[in-house]
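To fix ideas, we quote verbatim one protein's residues and C-alpha cells.
>
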Amino acid sequence: MDMPSVLGRARSVELADGGEGDVARGASVVARTAKESFAASDPSRTRDGAVTFDAQRDRAGPIGIMGVTLVGADPAKAGRLAVIGDADFASDTFFSLLGNKNLLVNTLGWLVQQQAQGARPQMESTQLGPMSPMYVSDDLAQWIFIFAVIVQPAAFLVVGIGVVVARRRRR
C-alpha cells in the first residue's frame, strides 16, 4: 500500500512469543505505526488530550497494529485470520481518508484468498477534488465555529442595520 492508514486510538498487536513472525510459518505482524508514535500505558491519558510521550511509562514506536496468521494444520486448507488493533476503523470518520479503504479491501481480499477487486491506486493529492482532509485542534475548531456562526452573521446584521438607518435618514 502506498498510502498510510489512519487508525485513531488503535491498540497494539503483538505475537505471543514477542517476535515479528512469518505468515508462511505462522503468525506475523504486518502493519506498524510510525517510528514517531508511542503506545500509552494508560489510554485514559490520551482521551483527556495528553499526548506527550513519557519514557518511564510509554513504549516508543513503531508499534504493531495489525497481525495475520494461517489457522489449521494443513496449509492447503488453512483458514486465515487478520487482527487489526482498531475495531471500528472501517466505520469511523477516518475511513474515507488516506489508505483506510484500501486497507480494508486488501485485508478482505487476503482473507478470502482472492485478488482484491475494489482496490484502486490512490489519487494524487492534487486530484482529490472538492474535498481534501484537514485536521484542526479543538481550540482552532472552536474559533472557526465562533467566527462562522457568531461573528460573520453579527457583522452582516450590523451592516444591514447601518444601511437601513442610513436610508431612513436620507428621506
